[in-house]
Amino acid sequence: MTDMSATPDAVQALFTRPEGYVFARWGRPIVPVVFGVDDATLAVVKGGIEAVVALAGHRMAEHDPELGANVMVFFCRDWDDLTGVPNLDRLIDGLGPLVARLQAQGANQYRMFRFDAAGAIRAAFVFLRMDPGMAEVPAEVLALDQAVRLICLWADGAFPQGVLVQAGGHAVLHPQVGAVIRAAYDPVLPAATRDASHALRLFARLPSAQG
Hints:
The chain is α/β, with parallel strands linked by helices. It contains eight helices and ten strands. Helices cover 35% and strands 20% of the residues. A four-stranded mixed β-sheet has the order 4-5-7-6, with helices on one face. A hairpin with a 2-residue loop joins strand 1 and strand 2.
């Protein structure tokens, strides 16, 4: 949906990686924790996640019985800061090489997912480097954008134009993106699949496909 059009091909492209169609959504309630921000920003980030989870018809929780928290969001000024986070290297295999790669790429964000035996998302790690460009983004916009990007396993580059639009002077979720998220969490559909026909089932649930 690079142009935010709602066609079967556009929906399929949202979840198509080099290895083919790969869809996954969360299979358990989401329990977020945020590091590296003040209390006010913490509340905004968690509020953005809660809003997208509610849109999806999914659930939040206070505790994940396996992991404690299953969404970890890290804000940093420099990628090197991550190497000083206690025990992070135990959670992220190859943390040192990852940091070096992000530095070399000049990246300002990175997401990593883990999956359960059925292929559904069981954990997500979000790393945000607050470079000058990122620092100019309002906290509410950044929170909503990142929440959308962790609610499903999207293809790399799925939203080159972003997931938000301006409405009434405020940044809001693009209606087509919201519709795909709601469709993705239809309980009738599988939590994970590599069958590209799944995209047709998603498309059939979009308001534009129903007239």
